[in-house]
Amino acid sequence: MSTLDFTITFHTGFRVATGNARDGLDDTVNADDPLPASTLKGLMRAAARTLLPPDGTTDHPLVVAVFGDRHHPSPWNWSSADFADPPTRHPRAHVAIDPETGTAARDMLRFAEEHWATTATFDVLRTGPLPAEDADRHRMLLAAAGCAVHALGSDRRRGLGWVTVTCPDRPPTHADIDRLLNLRTAETPA
């Protein structure tokens, strides 16, 4: 079996919300699993869809082959993030601004928890059958998709969750980018 290891460097706090509230907090995070495998896989799938866009409502065949779908399980398994130092949790206040007045909107203050960390690692392990001729293309897309993730968690488009992801095992090359660009237009079986 083969594994790809990834390193995440955090530039801001991040929040993968639980959807649950508790005393004094409108939204909380999971202290036991701050960055779960399902979140990492979803982020990488979204990045892969940007690299190899769907044809209408159908994902690119290589994206389906790597990440799976309802009818085809993925031959890869994601781990949750393993943090170099335990992340710390902090509350953050969020205020909605009234667009008419530019002031805080009435009754729109909420408190949400977030994590702060420096670095973490995760891996993607091949656990299913994969023809040898497809292994390199899968690894290429996984590495490129991982490195294309620059934000994670809630509010990632509002200044939270900014990251750099690297794949020391297989850093994407210029040749990989050319292959991906060629795959965007070619009908290639996964």
Automatic annotation (TrEMBL):
Keyword Aminoacyl-tRNA synthetase: no
Domain CRISPR type III-associated protein residue range list: 25-163
InterPro entries membership: CRISPR_Csm3_endoribonuclease, RAMP_III_fam
Presence of keyword Lipid biosynthesis: no
Residues of the signal peptide: none
Gene Ontology BP terms: defense response to virus
Family annotation (Pfam families): RAMPs
Subunit details: Part of the Csm effector complex that includes Cas10, Csm2, Csm3, Csm4 and Csm5.
Annotated protein name in UniProt: CRISPR type III-associated protein domain-containing protein
Organism, as annotated: Mangrovihabitans endophyticus
Lineage of source species: Bacteria, Bacillati, Actinomycetota, Actinomycetes, Micromonosporales
